[in-house]
From TrEMBL:
<dbReference type="Pfam" id="PF05717">
    <property type="entry name" value="TnpB_IS66"/>
</dbReference>
<protein>
    <recommendedName>
        <fullName>Transposase</fullName>
    </recommendedName>
</protein>
<dbReference type="InterPro" id="IPR008878">
    <property type="entry name" value="Transposase_IS66_Orf2"/>
</dbReference>
Length: 117
């Protein structure tokens, strides 16, 4: 199984993606639109226009994995726009997104700095 840790980079493609794209089409989109290396072992996440389907592409030990999730009634939060580049998330924020939360509105606890005491 693929191990995801705090150092795993997650890149969301802005706007919508044609979900008929499979591994080769999504890998090409990673290079062209996200301007990233699809063989980098990072997670590249794509969403359809209706925001009820997500595909995650990742390179792992000599081959691609393609994960797919479809919601029956709800919609995923997704960044709008067609600008090149990606929205960067942590693995934890990706988990929130897959659970139905909007990672941009989740509030963290303030960081406590005890060095001033």
């Amino acid at each position: 199984m693929i191990a995801l840790d705090a150092h795993t980079k997650v890149s969301l493609a802005r706007g919508h993606t044609d979900m008929r794209c499979q591994i080769d089409g999504l890998a090409a989109r990673v290079e062209d639109v996200l301007q990233a290396d699809p063989f980098s072992s990072h997670l590249f996440v794509f969403c359809n226009r209706a925001r009820d389907k997500i595909k995650v592409l990742v390179w792992y030990h000599g081959g691609f994995w393609l994960w797919y999730r479809r919601l029956e009634k709800e919609r995923f939060w997704w960044p709008a726009g067609t600008a090149k580049g990606a929205v960067e998330l942590s693995v934890r924020e990706l988990q929130w997104l897959l659970e139905g939360l909007d990672p941009s509105t989740v509030k963290w606890h303030r960081k406590v700095d005890f060095s001033l005491l």
